[in-house]
């Protein structure tokens, strides 16, 4: 041994050099393992209920890595959105859900989850150093998304891993051809749409959802321009106020006078198809629908899409916000293993992967500062600027009440009738009268 | 086996003709055996069937009836309201509107496929070149999955990008709203049903036509009847029991239609195509109002029972031996 050290051979020198090179890596891993034991719940298996979308695809792809890291097996299923919501409601109501982790749409199920005590409060897990990796960095989650996920009692029962801000997609080519600038106010949205509306050429100045239920976020996003949501913090309906009527009138004008024929039956997918075929100048919808617009196999407007922040209204400047969260079932017997899963799936690396693949806007702020991702992205700087600017002015796009679906149904019918020519104030008054008892009952029960 | 003339006694008679022969060949039974009553022992054999029927038919129905008297929303407590849900339904404009939509849709979705299917059966009953190939092509829509059919039609109905409006533009007709117009949504949905299910009617009626005797036609020709006379007074009366079977099947299908409507319009625009099934789905699986939805089911059941009795009576009247 001493001889080797004093008169090292070539083999010993090479071996020593390799060991020296590898030592920081080994040391770092050893330190990380020493600081946090990912294998603590090795051998357990958890069930996960996901909504069918590209973000869930990414999570399922990451499961193998998670299992290698933790030794925890994951059995996950993706269910289409509507059916997933039904499954979650029914299984949570049974008291013994078949899954340990579930994703929910916060804009639809947040209050329902709180009322039914679906999920564990995550804050004790976050604060527990034995259960939370030091590099998890919860503070990295945006203040807006976290506030949105937080329940009225202050508890945080889901991690807001995906946020959808409402923006205006616009066709730069059509704007340039008519020498029209991007609207500076919500009122200008209509005048700009009028200038660009050209039915003879099959071009609509504006397109948005007209289909009952799906159309409500369009109206509520416009109403945010009045600095007002549809239900006050005290639970009072503000849906027939002058501000609500103003938003309804704007919705009606935009869709009836500058929208494509048949927009009364359009959901987001019809709007998206119309826009990416170059048949609409502006489209107000969620930022999460951007991916196919820049796909040459699907879109005729690749490279011509502008991403604009929702313009300010008469009294305020907000972008409608919608979000998805993930939580641990209160009935789960493997809560700690489920928490490791949540940590891993929402870590910085996986949130950047979401942004990079165009699967949606992550809840973590650091993802938007990753210059490498931004430079490599097909969306360009304007898209990321729009995302960041929208995040700063984001406000809940739907009321935080239990019967959100009934709200969307009742006011959705009213909005559809408006596109058909019905009186805005009358429709909103009727819908408010219809929905008021439903809301009152939901607060009692 | 005695030969049966369908023109005289019909299919019911055919099934009964083989029975007496088998009975007559049975061994004579002793008087002691006939006097012994085995009935109580046989009851045991029916027990599994009774249990299954009780579990999958009787219990769900009784439970639905019970739930229709409750104000129960998933995730909340139940409260007995008696006939309150029914009283509320009677004043629910959307429910009443959905009944009208169901009737409108069902009548069109039964009558049109019956007329077109019967006409197609008469055409395909005749001999002409490539008849087999054309029959196969004609029945192909029936083989497609309803949801896939609905998705394809949705794309074709798109007001700006759909192929239907493009085809209309080629002949100078202005673009139509199709399912995106409250005024045309139900007739357009019926159009999909007609395309999808006319082949089924054609097959049923074609089966009936294939079994018709030749003798009445030969007699009619001798008496100087023309094609219309033979159709009106021979073909139609003889094939009518088969048409009735097609009407019963189509009525059941049209009443329970959900997938096509839900995929294409979700009951919209607004509530313009909201049938009872869509209304029921919304109440039960979107709003989770199980008590209210159960009351809808009970009313729907009563409507179906009344309609079934009417159709059974009509079918009974249409039998050959009456």
Automatic annotation (TrEMBL), chain A:
InterPro entries to which the protein is assigned, alphabetical: Bact_solute-bd_prot1 (IPR050490), SBP (IPR006059), TAT_signal (IPR006311)
Domain of life: Bacteria
Keyword hit for Signal: yes
Keywords carried by this UniProt record: Periplasm, Signal, Transport
PROSITE patterns linked: TAT (PS51318)
Cellular compartment(s): Periplasm
Membership in a protein family: Belongs to the bacterial solute-binding protein 1 family.
Protein name per Swiss-Prot or TrEMBL: ABC transporter substrate-binding protein
Naturally occurring in which organism (per UniProt): Bosea minatitlanensis
